[in-house]
Amino acid sequence: MVINTNISAQSAATMLQQSSANLSASLARLSSGSKITSPADDSAGLAVSMKLGAQISRTGAAQQNVSNAISFNQTQDGYLQQVNTALTRMSELSVSAQDVTKTSADLKLYQQEYKTLGAYVNDVATKSFNGVSLFNGNTLSVTSDSEGALFSNTGVNLGSTSYTAATGGDISTVAGAVQAVKDTETAINSLASDRANIGANEEALGYYNNQLSSLSNNLSAAKSQITDVDVATESTNYAKENILVQSGTAMLAQANSMPQSVLRLLS
Length: 267
Prior knowledge:
Layout: H1 7-32, H2 43-96, H3 104-124, E1 128-129, E2 132-133, E3 140-143, E4 150-153, H4 161-167, H5 174-227, H6 231-257, H7 262-266
Antiparallel strand pairs: 1-2, 3-4
């Protein structure tokens, strides 16, 4: 029996130190809700979770871009619905102006309404969405995923000749009214095509939006598997380490008291 080197106490102290460290780590996990409270807990898992977190953020940004593009298209179509009403009325006026029972004074009244409606269509062509022109005909590139892929959002050009020929018509004469019928018909056909393109844009962007939403959920679930603590499992582990700390403390006290038995040999 020796007293200078208490191997039992040293071993108990080492085990107590390990149990205390494990207890502290378990407490940190439970209090933070994360399995990885420091890189040492899971260095590989930390690296993967960081990349997943970045992708989730990019996916959210792309989804916002797509949602804004959908709003852009919906705003376009809202205006074009009214343009359709105006062009339809202009087409009607063009035919009415060919009535042989109408006087030149009547035709001037038709022309006044026709001109006013044409001015409305021309004014719509100048509208914008958050400073971006709605009807300049430009195709917009919309970010459609977290890696920067682009969707081509087809534009609408209300300044094209298919529209301006109709809005600039003059139905104060029969000949002008005959031409206006053709011009308004061309404009309405162009409008139908443009609204169909907008509908296709909205449909495709809706698919992208749903895809990004699903991707974000799946990425979040994958990241959760790596970083989020299982409270039930960790509570069990905490209880185990707590018991080990208490028993280790008791055993260390016993190991430190063992050399006192040497005194019995000296008495």
